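Help!! Second protein's tokens look totally different from the first
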Amino acid sequence: MLKKYISILILILISILTLYIGDYLINDVKIIVNGSSTCISTFSNEIEDILKDNKIELKDNDYINLNKSQKISDGTILVIKSLVPIKILKGEQTINSFSYENTVKEALDEHGINYDEDDIISPELDSKILANMTIKVDKVEEKTVIEYNKIPYQSIIKYNKNFYIDTKKEVQKGEEGIVEVQKNQKFINGKLDSEFIIREITKKEPINQIIEKGSKPKVITSRSGVRFEKSMIMKASAYDLSYESTGKKPGDKYYGITASGVKAKKGIVAVDPKVIPLGTRLYIESLDGSENYGFAVAGDTGGAIKGNRIDLFYNDHEFVKKYGIKKVKVYILK
């Protein structure tokens, strides 16, 4: 009978002990402080005790997801966030504020800042929020614009042997063309940052102006009062004062002086004195439709100018290099 009472007493004691210890069973708690998490096991169910045991000191403005008087249980998640000052620059707007959030994305969402995938955000969205951080949001927009630009026309000169050299007329009026230009423009915070041309479409071709100039020399007309003894077809080349043309350099004794002793200039040409005597007055007509050389004097000679050859002086060195050999008609004037 005694054993029976002892057994009952033990059961009663176990029940009492279970009820007493129940409130102090081990609780697994997850603590997240400013995004960093720690898992702990504790016999305590008091939040203040847990904070003290884990050396977590709450400041006045700190956020905690539970009331400090609330009891915790197994599996409780305790979230603590510190309020930090931040600056948000959105275009021309500056926002000085505070945030409890952990990342740039969370802070922007917290402040209702709208953005899309084309916008430039610095630091990046997943960057951790730090005290006194500056977050910059640049709004990026792209537009396709269409412009209509003018295409300038060219003036083309054609030489007409049926008109005298001092006459010209417009035989076709020039008209500008139109080109459609499609551009992609990129704007950052409303200001144009860059652009590139997508395509160009010619809507109207330009019409070139055509001007006819006379190339007929007056020396062959009786009305001009000028007479010529004879004419001949000759091969023409061009020369200037360069070393390539004369074999002389600036500073040489006879630099720039022709065989006849006169100074080299436009209108002085080199001839073979056996064909055209020095001092003869000439008129040189172009036979390829280009502008006539015009009136000239045979005032120079040249080692390569033999027989039916004539060398025309020009002041333009680049023109001389491109001149080559051309056929001209040379009039021996009276």
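Here's the second one for comparison:
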Amino acid sequence: MWKISLTLTSVVCLLAQVSAPGKEWTLVFADEFEGSVLDLTRWSPHDPFGNKRIGELARAVPEAITVSDGQAMISARHEGGEPPFTSGVMTTRGTFAQMYGRFEVRLRIAEGRGLETHVQLLPVSLKTLPAIDILDALGAEPGMARFENRWGDEKTERAFGDTWAGPSLAAGLHTVAVEWDARSIVWFVDGKKRFESTEGIPREPMYMAVSLAVGGRRAKVPGAEVRFPAVVVIDYIRVYRKS
């Protein structure tokens, strides 16, 4: 299991500030984004898969991620050229990965056709599978949260997922989380269980990735009504392990 790069002092301070979701959980990684720049001891602002993904209309650039007022922001901008947009991805690959635990993010998604907010757990091996989509939210359907567990390989890929209709994830901050162990993956939105998978459970360390995509198979081309920069706001990210 990979180790987190937090000092003992910072862990103690975070434990004093953050209440665990239950006595059985111990906080092992957290970022409350209290500084003025992204903490590169915790995050990489580079896409592990390259700065442009097939079918999407934006390239990932580090400057798309900013930190201020206790929040991190991933901004998509229309820059012209090819591809015509820039956006960002922030991951813990190389700094933190864990097998099993509770992974929790409080955020506000970007709204508008052509935008797609992702919160994922991905394998350290850089294979595309397995993968746990903690949240996949289309800007055109901000009240629809998508959850999915994917496993296998390119020839045998299987997936189990569902959607949940609720309040707009683009209107204010909402908390999404998964609790993952050897038997199941359970999804939560705003503290309530929304979905569960007991098939194809990953059994390897995975890192966290949060990104804002422009275009793609599901998001399509941005609508004329979308105002750029379009922004995903992240209030905090916390990871726990069973005590």
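Reply: Different proteins will give different token patterns, so don't panic. Residues 19 and 116 are 30 Å apart (CA to CA).
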